[in-house]
Amino acid sequence: MSNWTDVAAEADLFDGAGIPVAPGGRDIALFSVNGEVFATSNLCTHGNASLCEGFIEGHEIECPFHQGRFDLRTGAATFAPCTEPIQVWPVKVEGGRVFLDLA
Ligand code: FES
Q1: Is the CB of 68 under 6 A from ligand 1?
Q2: How far apart are CA 91 and CA 39, in angstroms?
Q3: Whether residue 21 has its Cβ less than 6 Å from ligand 1
């Protein structure tokens, strides 16, 4: 069962950058890449870094602390020192709003 939750305005997103959102107290990062929006856990699995402050390269987010990387589409760790995946959530953009399926 899906549970779409309105988390941000599409206008709050900037291509090639991330922003933090906190639906229900969760720490989630939204990223805009070539007009597509991705939602991942904002916390790096290697340390206490906010991934929304990292750098987007292609479809990967590079952690600002030790330059480990994750795939924004799957959450898979793609570059050391990151080895554990991050959680990702389905995203839809409708009527200028960004919704996440938090179910
Ligand atoms: Fe993210 Fe180390 S805290 S790579």
Answers
A1: yes
A2: 7
A3: no
84 CB within 6 A, ligand 1: no
pTM: 0.95
For residue 82, the ligand 1 atom closest to its alpha carbon is: 4
Name the class of domain 4-101.
Answer: mainly beta
CB 51 within 8 A of CB 40: yes
CA 79, CA 11: separation in Å to the nearest integer? 31
| C-alpha to C-alpha distance for 33 and 46, rounded to whole angstroms | 23
Residue 20 is encoded by which pair of tokens? 């933090």
Reported as a single tens digit per residue, the pLDDT across 47-85 is: 999 999 999 999 999 999 999 999 999 999 999 999 999
What distance in Å separates the CA atoms of residue 103 and residue 54, rounded to the nearest whole number? Answer: 26
Which atom of ligand 1 lies nearest, measured to the CA of 68?
Answer: 4
Pocket of ligand 1 contains residue 44 by CB under 6 Å: yes
